[in-house]
Write a structure and sequence with these properties.
Elements (H helix, E strand, L loop, with lengths): L8 H11 L7 E8 L5 E8 L3 E6 L6 E6 L3 E6 L5 E5 L6 E5 L13 H23 L5 H4 L2 E4 L3 H10 L1 H4 L11 H12 L5 H13 L4 E3 L11 H6 L9 E3 L7 H13 L5 E3 L7 H13 L7 E3 L6 H12 L8 E3 L7 H13 L3 H4 L2 E3 L10 H8 L6 E3 L7 H11 L6 E3 L15 H9 L5 E3 L7 H12 L7 E4 L6 H11 L6 E5 L9 H9 L6 E3 L9 H15 L8 E3 L10 H7 L7 E3 L6 H14 L5 E3 L7 H11 L12 H10 L1 H19 L7 H12 L2 H19 L7 H17 L2 H9 L3 H6 L3 H35 L7 H14 L4 H50 L25 H7 L5 H4 L9 H9 L10 H5 L25 H4 L42 H9 L1 H4 L2 H5 L10 H5 L4 H9 L17 H4 L4 E2 L16 E2 L5 H4 L6 E2 L2 E2 L41 H5 L3 H5 L5 H20 L1
Parallel strand pairs: 5-8, 9-10, 10-11, 11-12, 12-13, 13-14, 14-15, 15-16, 16-17, 17-18, 18-19, 19-20, 20-21, 21-22, 22-23
Antiparallel strand pairs: 1-2, 1-7, 2-3, 3-4, 5-6, 6-7, 24-25, 26-27
Helix pairs in contact: 2-4, 9-10, 10-11, 11-12, 12-14, 14-15, 15-16, 16-17, 17-18, 18-19, 19-20, 21-22, 22-23, 23-25, 24-25, 26-33, 27-28, 27-33, 28-33, 29-33, 31-32, 31-33
Length: 1221
C-alpha cells in the first residue's frame, strides 16, 4: 500500500533531509503511537536496513526515538489493526495503529479494518525482509524469540511471501554466510565504527582457506572495543563453528559478548578460551549460558591455563551432566584443580551416559591430584571412546591409573601422556600386573610419554616387554626422556629393545646412560622397526674416552646395510670434535633422512667436514645445526657444498649462530644465507638426477683399497708361481687354477663399472626421453589428457543444459548457444604441456630416480661380494702354493716416527701366524730378489693388511687434520720414504738369536736427560763376588752379552762435548724433533726448571756407551760437562786434558727457561752445534737439553781450579766404583 497519499510532500522531504543519504529508507508509514493515558500521537515510522526510526509528523521533523532490530524482544499482533513491540531499553510497550487510508481509495471497495490489517502486515513484512537480508540462513524466530500473531497461519503466510522463491529475488548470501553484513549490523548495534579491513580479511583470507575457525588473534592489533562487534557477529552466523580467543587480552565487554554468543548461537561447536586470566565467576556465567541454550551444538571446551579452581569446575560439572549431546573434548590443563574438583567433574561424566560414547579428548595436566581419584578411575574403567588422555604433571598414582586404563581404554586410546609423575611403588616392590597387561592389550596406541617419571627398572622392563608382546599396534612413539635411567636402565633397554617391533620412534634424551650407551646403541640397531631416534643431552658431561666408544657404535649402527633409521637427534650434546666421526659417516650414509646436530659447538672445522659430507650425500632431506659456534667461513663452506647437493630440502635458519655473524659482517652474512636458502628452494623442485656422481662415489668406496690389495695379492701369487714353476709338472693343475683366479682378479677391478654400464645404459635414452619408462609415462600422459578433455567437455554440456533451463528466453537462439559453448571450450582447454609436466617431469622424475638408486645399490652389493670372494680364493691359492704358509711378518721400517704407521694385522693373520713357525720359516722364497717395480710398490704405498676392509670401513671418510686439536700423530701418516742403511740401525726389529754374536744396545741412552736436583735416597748396589755367580755368568755370556749396558740405569745427561758430538746419534729421535708437528705444550712437566740455583751448581755426569769388539763389559767414562764460551764455539769445543775438561771462562747468567712458554730471552748465550748452527736452530736445543748444560752458568757461581780438582776426584771415584761393578 502506498503511503504517499498519507504523507505530504514537505514531510517526505523533511524525513529524507533528516536521515541523510547514508541511511537507506525501506518503508515510511504514518502511525498512531499510544501513550500511557490511552491517548495517541501521530508519528512517522521509518524502516532502515538495521534500525527502526520514529519521527514527529510535523515539518520540520525530528527523531523522537529509534532502536535496532536486534533490540526487539517481542512482536505481538492479536488485533488486525494493532502492532505491539517490546523493545530492550524502552520501559514501555509500543502500541501502533496505522493511520486511516487515503480518501482516494474508495471506501466501498476496501474495508477499513482490512486496510489497517494490510498495513500492519506490510510493516511486519518489511521488518522480516530486513532481517532476512542480514541473516539469510537463520529463521526470524531465532532472532526474535517471541512472535505472536493472530491467527497463527498469519506468520507462515508472511514468511512465505517474503521468501526468495516468492519474490523472485535471489540475492547472494555473501562470503562466509554474510559475515560482513552481520559485522556491519553489529557495528551499528554497538555504535562502533565499521572496519573495512575486518570485512576484507573474513571475505578473502578465511574464505580462500575455507576456514571455519574465527581466531581473534588475527585482529589483536585492533582496539579492544573493535573486537566486540566481531564476536557479536557470530551470534547468528552459520559459517563459523569454532571460536579461538586464547593468549590475548580481552575486555569484560568482549567476554560478555562471548557468553552472549554461547546463549544464542546454533552453529558454534568448539570454544577455546585458554590463557585469558579467567576465574571461577566466569565459569559460573559460562554454565548459565550453556543452560540458556538448549539447542547448543557446543561439544569442545578449552579453559586451560585459567585459575577457575574447584569452585568453577563445580558449576560446569552440573551442566556437563545434563548435556543431551555429550562432549567430545575437555581441556582443563593448569586450572588450579585438586582431587575434589576432578572427582566432581568425573562424577558428572559418569552421570551422563552420552559421555561414554562421545568424549574422546580429556586433558587434566598441570593440576595437583595427589589424593585418591576414585571417580576418575571409575569413569576410565568403564568402556569409553577416549583417544587422548593427558594427566602429566599431576602427581597422580600411576599404579591405580593403569588398572582403570586396562579395563576401559584399551580399544580407542591412541595418545597417553603421563609424564612428570612419580611411581608410588617403593624400591623392591613389584609393579602391578595391570601395568604390563595394558601395553600388551592396547590396540591403537600411537604416542606414549613417560618423560620425567623416574621410571623404576622393573617398570621399564615391564613396559618394554609389554610392548614386545603387542601385535596390534605399530609405529608407536615412545618418550623416555629425562628419566635418569643411568647404566642400569641402559642394560634393561639393551636386553629388551630388539623385540619391540611396534616401536617407530624412541626418545632417550637426557638419561645419563654413561658408557653403556654404546652397547645400547648396538642393540637399538637390531630393532628393524625403529625409524626415529633421539639421543640428545646424554653425552654432554661424559668422559672423553667413553664418548669416543659411543660415537663409534653410533657410526657403526647407521652404516649397517639393513639400517632403517630415518632421523637421528644428538642435540645439545656438546660433542665438539667428537662429532666429526659422525659427520664423516654422513657422506656415504644411505638411511638417514633427517638429522639434528644443534648445540654441539663443532665450530668451523665441523662445518667444513659437514660441507664435505653434503657434497656426496644423496639421502639427507632435513638438517638442523644451529648453536654450533659456526662463523661466516663455515657457512660459506656449507653454501659451496649445497651447490652439489640436490636432496637437502629443509634446513631451519640458524638464528643463534647468525646473530654473531651479523655483528661481524652483516652484508656478507646476508649474501651467504640468501644463497643457502636459494639452494634449498631449488632442491624442493623435483629434478631428474643422473647418478654419475653416485656411480663414481660407489667406485671410490669399493675400489679405494680393493685395487691396491688385489694388485698386491696378484704380485705375490705371481712370484710364488714363478718359483713353483721350477718344480716338476705335478702342480700344473694348481697353477692353471691360480692363473684363472688371477685373470678374475684383473676383471673384478672393472666389475662395478661394467655392472653400472648394464644398469645405466638407458641414461642416453632418458636424456632424449626415449627410454621405456619415459615412453610409458608419455603414453599415460596422453591418455590422461584425453580423459580430462572428455570430462571437461561433458561438464560444459551439462552447464549449458542447466543455463538453457534457467534462462530459456535469452538462450533460445541456437547460434547464441554455439558461440557461448565455443568460448567455454576455449577457456577450459587443458594444455597437454601441463599434463606432461605433471606426469613425466614430476612423477616420472621421482620414479626414475628411485629406479636408478636401486640399480646402483644392487651393483655395488654384487661387486662387493664378488670382490670378497676373489680375494678369499686368491689367499687360499697363495697358501697352497707356498706350502700353506703366510708372508713373513713385515719388519718395522726405519722411516722417522713422524712418517711411520703402525702395522695393523687382521685377526685372521694373527691366528694363522701363531702356529709356532719362526719368522724365517714363514718367509717366501726369493723374497729378497724382488723386482724394482715391486720394491717401489711396497715402499710408496701404506702397508695393507691381508684382509680387505669392510664396506663399512671404506665408506667412512678418513680422519682429517681438523679432527684433532693437537694435529697429526705419527700413526696417521703412511710410510712414504725409502729405507736407508743409516735408518736401519734405528729400526726396531726382532730380537736376535742366542748365538748371533750381536750385542744389545740402548739406543736412547745418549739422549739428554734432566739434571738431578736431589741426592739419591737408596744405597748403591754392589755386585756379588761369589764363585757360583761368576761361573754362572761365564756360562750365560753368550746369551746375556750387552744386557748390563742395556738395562743399566742411565747416568745424568751429558754435556755438549766433542766426544758426545762425535758419537752416533739416534736418527729417529732427531727426525722426530725436526719434523713432528706436535707443539710443545705449555706447562709440560719436562720443562720445569731446577728447584734451586744452589742445586744447579753441582756438576753433571754423562756416559757414552759404545760396544766393545771382544764382547767384554762396556765401560762408562764420566766427564765433566762444560758450557762452551762464545770464543770456543767457533772452534767447536774446548780442550780436554786427561779426560777432564778445563773450566770455562766466566759467562753471564742466562734467563732460565719459562715453564709456561719455553722461550729464552735475547741475552742468553747461544750454543753452537757441530755444524756451526746456532742454538735456536739446533735440534738438541730443548728444555731437556738445556738442563743438561753446565749448571754453573745457571747458578751464576764462579768455579775455580780447586773446585775443578774436587770434581775430578769425585769422577775418579765414580770410575773405580763402576769398574768394580
Amino acid at each position: 500500500m502506498s503511503t504517499r497519499s498519507q504523507l505530504t510532500k514537505d514531510l517526505n522531504e523533511s524525513v529524507k533531509s533528516l536521515l541523510g543519504k547514508n541511511i537507506k529508507i525501506l518503508r515510511k508509514t504514518l502511525v498512531k503511537l499510544e501513550k500511557n493515558d490511552k491517548k495517541t500521537e501521530n508519528r512517522v515510522m521509518v524502516f532502515s536496513p538495521c534500525r527502526l526510526f520514529f519521527l514527529t509528523a510535523k515539518v520540520p521533523t525530528r527523531i523522537d526515538f529509534h532502536f535496532h532490530y536486534l533490540e526487539i524482544q517481542k512482536i505481538e499482533s492479536k488485533k488486525s489493526n494493532q502492532l505491539v513491540l517490546s523493545v530492550m531499553g524502552i520501559d514501555r510497550t509500543l502500541v501502533l495503529y496505522p493511520s486511516q487510508i487515503s480518501e482516494a481509495v474508495p471506501m466501498s471497495r476496501v474495508d477499513p479494518d482490512m486496510a489497517a490489517c494490510l498495513e500492519v502486515d506490510g510493516m511486519l513484512s518489511t521488518l522480516a525482509s530486513a532481517l532476512l537480508v542480514i541473516y539469510p540462513s537463520v529463521p526470524i524466530t531465532n532472532i526474535i524469540r517471541k512472535i505472536e500473531l493472530v491467527p497463527e497461519k498469519r506468520l507462515e503466510q508472511l514468511l512465505t511471501e517474503i521468501s526468495p522463491a516468492a519474490t523472485g529475488t535471489f540475492s547472494g548470501v555473501g562470503p562466509c554466510c554474510g559475515f560482513s553484513t552481520q559485522y556491519a549490523c553489529m557495528c551499528d548495534f554497538h555504535g562502533l565504527p565499521y572496519r573495512d579491513e575486518v570485512a576484507w580479511d573474513i571475505d578473502t583470507i578465511y574464505l580462500s582457506h575455507n576456514s571455519k575457525e574465527l581466531s581473534l588473534k588475527d585482529f589483536e592489533h585492533l582496539d579492544q572495543r573493535d573486537l566486540v562487534p566481531i564476536v557479536s557477529a557470530l551470534e547468528h552466523n552459520t559459517w563459523f563453528t569454532k571460536l579461538r580467543a586464547g593468549h590475548i587480552r580481552l575486555s569484560h565487554e568482549a567476554l560478555d559478548r562471548i557468553l552472549q554468543v554461547i546463549r544464542r548461537s546454533l552453529s558454534l561447536e568448539e570454544l577455546y578460551l585458554d590463557n585469558l586470566g579467567l576465574r571461577g565467576d566466569f565459569a559460573h556465567k559460562l554454565s548459565l549460558s550453556l543452560l540458556a541454550n538448549p539447542h547448543s551444538h557446543l561439544h569442545s571446551l578449552d579453559l586451560s591455563n585459567n585459575l577457575i579452581e574447584d569452585k568453577g569446575i563445580g558449576h560446569l560439572s552440573h551442566v556437563f551432566g545434563r548435556l543431551p549431546t555429550g562432549l567430545v573434548k575437555l581441556n582443563f590443563s593448569s586450572c588450579g584443580l585438586s582431587c575434589k574438583g576432578v572427582n566432581q567433574l568425573s562424577h558428572a561424566l559418569l552421570s551422563n551416559p552420552n559421555m561414554f560414547s562421545t568424549l574422546a579428548h580429556l586433558d587434566l595436566s598441570g593440576n595437583s591430584l595427589k589424593d585418591d581419584l576414585n571417580n576418575l578411575c571409575n569413569f576410565l574403567a568403564q568402556p569409553n571412546c577416549i583417544a587422548h588422555l593427558d594427566v602429566s604433571g599431576t602427581d597422580a598414582t600411576l599404579e591405580h591409573l593403569f588398572g582403570a586404563l586396562l579395563r576401559g581404554c584399551t580399544t580407542h586410546l591412541t595418545n597417553l601422556n603421563i609424564s612428570k609423575n612419580k611411581f608410588a611403588s617403593k624400591k623392591g616392590k613389584e609393579v602391578p600386573p595391570s601395568f604390563k597387561q595394558f601395553f600388551t592389550s592396547s590396540l591403537n596406541l600411537k604416542f606414549l610419554n613417560f618423560s620425567g617419571c623416574c621410571l623404576p627398572l622393573d617398570a621399564l622392563k615391564n613396559l618394554l616387554l609389554g610392548l614386545a608382546c603387542n601385535e596390534s599396534t605399530e609405529g608407536l612413539a615412545l618418550d623416555l626422556s629425562n628419566n635418569n635411567l643411568s647404566a642400569s636402565g641402559a642394560h634393561v633397554i639393551e636386553s629388551c629393545i630388539h623385540g619391540v617391533r611396534c616401536l617407530g620412534q624412541l626418545d632417550l634424551n637426557e638419561n645419563n646412560f654413561d658408557v653403556e650407551l654404546a652397547t645400547m646403541i648396538t642393540a637399538i640397531g637390531k630393532n628393524k622397526s625403529l625409524k626415529h631416534l633421539n639421543l640428545g643431552r646424554n653425552l654432554a658431561n661424559m668422559k672423553q674416552k667413553h664418548v669416543v666408544v659411543i660415537m663409534e657404535a653410533l657410526v657403526q649402527m647407521i652404516q649397517e646395510d639393513d639400517c632403517i633409521l630415518q632421523s637421528l637427534s644428538l642435540a645439545d650434546s656438546k660433542l665438539k670434535t667428537d662429532i666429526f666421526s659422525l659427520i664423516n659417516a654422513l657422506g656415504s650414509n644411505q638411511c638417514l633422512q633427517s638429522i639434528d646436530i644443534s648445540g654441539n659447538m663443532m665450530g668451523d672445522a665441523g662445518a667444513r667436514l659437514l660441507a664435505k659430507a653434503l657434497q656426496i650425500n644423496t639421502k639427507l632431506k632435513n638438517m638442523v645445526f644451529d648453536r654450533n659456534n659456526i662463523t661466516l667461513q663455515g657457512y660459506s663452506d656449507i653454501a659451496y657444498a649445497l651447490e652439489s647437493n640436490f636432496t637437502l630440502r629443509y634446513m631451519p635458519f640458524p638464528v643463534f649462530d647468525v646473530q654473531h655473524c651479523m655483528k661481524a659482517s652483516a652484508e656478507r652474512t646476508d649474501l651467504i644465507m640468501r644463497r643457502i636458502q636459494e639452494l634449498i628452494h631449488r632442491n624442493v623442485t623435483p629434478k631428474r638426477q643422473y647418478h654419475s656422481q653416485a656411480l663414481r662415489l660407489q667406485q671410490g668406496f669399493l675400489l679405494t683399497s680393493t685395487q691396491q690389495m688385489v694388485d698386491r695379492l696378484v704380485l705375490q701369487t705371481q712370484d710364488s708361481i714363478a718359483v713353483l714353476s721350477q718344480v716338476p709338472a705335478e702342480n700344473n693343475e694348481l697353477l692353471e687354477e691360480t692363473q684363472g683366479l688371477i685373470s678374475d682378479a684383473e676383471n673384478v677391478k672393472q666389475l662395478l663399472h661394467r655392472l653400472n654400464e648394464v644398469a645405466l645404459k638407458g641414461d642416453e635414452d632418458d636424456l632424449n626421453g626415449t627410454g621405456p619408462i619415459d615412453i610409458k609415462l608419455q603414453q599415460c600422459a596422453i591418455e590422461l589428457h584425453s580423459t580430462c578433455a572428455a570430462f571437461i567437455q561433458r561438464t560444459i554440456e551439462n552447464m549449458m543444459t542447466c543455463a538453457i533451463r534457467e534462462c530459456p528466453h535469452v538462450l533460445e537462439d541456437s547460434q547464441t548457444q554455439q558461440d557461448i559453448a565455443k568460448i567455454c571450450r576455449a577457456k577450459s582447454t587443458m594444455p597437454i604441456e601441463f599434463v606432461n609436466n605433471t606426469i613425466v617431469e614430476q612423477a616420472g622424475t621421482e620414479i626414475i630416480n628411485k629406479i636408478k638408486e636401486l640399480n646402483l645399490m644392487t651393483a655395488a652389493h654384487l661387486s662387493d661380494k664378488i670382490t670378497d670372494e676373489v680375494i678369499e680364493c686368491l689367499s687360499r691359492s697363495h697358501k697352497a702354493i707356498v706350502g700353506d704358509s703366510r708372508a713373513s711378518i713385515r719388519k718395522r721400517s726405519s722411516t722417522p716416527d713422524v712418517l711411520r704407521t703402525r702395522s695393523r694385522l687382521s685377526s685372521d693373520a694373527l691366528k694363522s701366524e701363531a702356529g709356532g713357525m719362526s719368522p724365517t720359516d714363514c718367509s717366501l722364497p726369493n723374497s729378497t730378489d724382488q723386482s724394482p717395480m715391486l720394491e717401489y710398490l711396497n715402499l710408496a704405498t701404506p702397508h695393507m693388511s691381508s684382509k680387505r676392509k669392510s664396506l663399512y670401513g671404506r665408506k667412512l671418510r678418513p680422519q682429517s687434520v681438523v679432527d684433532s686439536s693437537e694435529g697429526l700423530s705419527a700413526d696417521d701418516i703412511p710410510d712414504l720414504l725409502p729405507k736407508s742403511a743409516e735408518e736401519s740401525q734405528d729400526s726396531v726389529s726382532d730380537l736376535p738369536a742366542g748365538g748371533s754374536g750381536q750385542v744389545l744396545m740402548h739406543l736412547v741412552k745418549t739422549r739428554p736427560k734432566r739434571a738431578k736436583t736431589r741426592a739419591p735416597t737408596r744405597p748403591m748396589l754392589r755386585g756379588s763376588t761369589s764363585d757360583t755367580e761368576q761361573s754362572s755368568s761365564k756360562d750365560s755370556s753368550a746369551i746375556a752379552e750387552g744386557l748390563d749396558s742395556f738395562f743399566v740405569k742411565p747416568s745424568p745427561a751429558p754435556s755438549i762435548s766433542s766426544s758426545l758430538m762425535n758419537a752416533p746419534r739416534s736418527q729417529s729421535s732427531d727426525n722426530l724433533r725436526k719434523a713432528s708437528p706436535l707443539p710443545i705444550l705449555k706447562g709440560d712437566k719436562s720443562q720445569k726448571p731446577p728447584a734451586s740455583p744452589l742445586l744447579n751448581s753441582e756438576a753433571e755426569e754423562s756416559a757414552s756407551p759404545s760396544p766393545v769388539p771382544d764382547h767384554t763389559k762396556q765401560t762408562v767414562l764420566s766427564t765433566k760437562s762444560e758450557t762452551p764460551s762464545p770464543s770456543n764455539t767457533a772452534k767447536g769445543s774446548s780442550k780436554i786434558k786427561d779426560g777432564i775438561r778445563k773450566p770455562p771462562p766466566i759467562a753471564p747468567k742466562p734467563r732460565p727457561w719459562s715453564m709456561f712458554t719455553g722461550d729464552k730471552v735475547s741475552g742468553e748465550l747461544s750454543l753452537v752445534s757441530d755444524g756451526g748452527s746456532s742454538s735456536t736452530t739446533s735440534d738438541a736445543n730443548t728444555p731437556d737439553s738445556v738442563d743438561a748444560l753446565d749448571e754453573s752458568t745457571d747458578s751464576g757461581l764462579v768455579i775455580d781450579s780447586s773446585e775443578a780438582e774436587k770434581q775430578e776426584a769425585k769422577e775418579e771415584a765414580a770410575k773405580r766404583q763402576s769398574n768394580k761393578l
